[in-house]
Design brief:
CATH class: Alpha Beta
CATH architecture: Alpha-Beta Barrel
Strand content: 15-25%
Helix content: 25-40%
Number of domains: 1
Oligomer: single chain
Shape: globular
Distance between the termini: 10 Å
Order of helices and strands: EHEHEHEHEHEHEHEHH
Largest sheet: 8 strands, parallel
Number of strands: 8
Strand order of the largest sheet: 1-8-7-6-5-4-3-2
Length: 225
C-alpha cells in the first residue's frame, strides 16, 4: 500500500525566508516539500526555476517534489538534476511526443519521475506512462486548474483518483489544489496518498496541526480500504 506523504506547497511560503520556511515545515512533520515550477507559458504565471532549487538544496536534505508546469519539460531535466531536485513531475499535456525519452532522462538524472494532468484531461492519457516498461512512479491529479494557488477544490476530479487507485493499488497518487482539513477526507477516501497543501498549511495558526490532520486522514482511509 502506498504510504502517506504530506507535501506543503512552498509557493505559499515566505519566499524571502525560503530556507527557514523549508526547515520549519520539515520540523512540523512534512514528508516532502512541493515546489511549483511555472514558465508563464504553459500556465499564466511565473514562479521559480532551477537556481532557486539549487539554492534551497544547500539548506535542506528534504525531498524536493518538483512539479513542472512548463511547455518543454525535457529542457528542464538536466538543470533540475544538477540543482538537486528529488522528484520531477511533468505534464502529460506537454509531453505527448517524447514522454518515453523524458522518463529515461529523469531517471538517469537521479530523480523520481511523475506525470501530472489538468482537470479536463482524461485519466486514460496517463495509463501508458504508468504501464510502460520504464514507468513513471507517481501520478499527480490536479484538483484545480494549474497556475495559481488558493483555488477551490474540484471534487469531480476524484473520479480520476478512484480509477487510478483501483487500477494501480500501490501507485503514489498525488493531489494538488484546494486541499485542507475540509477536503482531505474526500481525497483520502478516493485513494490519494500524496497530499499537496499550500494556503491551508501556511495560512493556519498551527501548521503542524494541519499536517497531522492530513496525514491521519490518509492513513485512516487506507486502513479502511
Amino acid at each position: 500500500m502506498a504510504t502517506a506523504k504530506i507535501a506543503p506547497s512552498m509557493l505559499s511560503s515566505d519566499f524571502s525566508n525560503l530556507a527557514s520556511e523549508a526547515d520549519r515545515m520539515v520540523r512540523l512533520g512534512a514528508d516532502w516539500l512541493h515546489m511549483d515550477i511555472m514558465d508563464g507559458h504553459f500556465v499564466p504565471n511565473l514562479t521559480i526555476g532551477a537556481p532557486v532549487i539549487e539554492s534551497l538544496r544547500k539548506h535542506t536534505k528534504a525531498y524536493l517534489d518538483c512539479h513542472l508546469m512548463v511547455t518543454n519539460p525535457i529542457d528542464y531535466v538536466e538543470p533540475f538534476a544538477k540543482a538537486g531536485a528529488s522528484g520531477f513531475t511533468f505534464h502529460v499535456e506537454a509531453s505527448k511526443d517524447n514522454w518515453q525519452e523524458l522518463i529515461q532522462r529523469i531517471k538517469k538524472g537521479g530523480m523520481r519521475p511523475g506525470v501530472a494532468l489538468k482537470p479536463a484531461t482524461p485519466i486514460e492519457e496517463v495509463y501508458p506512462l504508468v504501464e510502460n516498461e520504464n514507468p513513471v512512479e507517481m501520478v499527480l491529479v490536479m484538483t484545480v486548474e494549474p497556475g495559481f494557488g488558493g483555488q477551490k477544490f474540484m471534487p469531480e476530479t476524484m473520479d480520476k483518483v478512484r480509477a487510478l487507485r483501483k487500477k494501480y493499488p500501490s501507485l503514489d497518487i498525488e493531489v494538488d489544489g484546494g486541499l485542507g482539513p475540509s477536503t482531505i477526507d474526500v481525497a483520502a477516501s478516493a485513494g490519494a496518498n500524496c497530499i499537496v497543501a499550500g494556503s491551508s498549511v501556511f495560512g493556519a495558526p498551527e501548521p503542524g496541526q494541519v499536517i497531522s490532520i492530513l496525514r491521519k486522514s490518509v492513513e485512516g482511509a487506507h486502513q479502511n480500504s
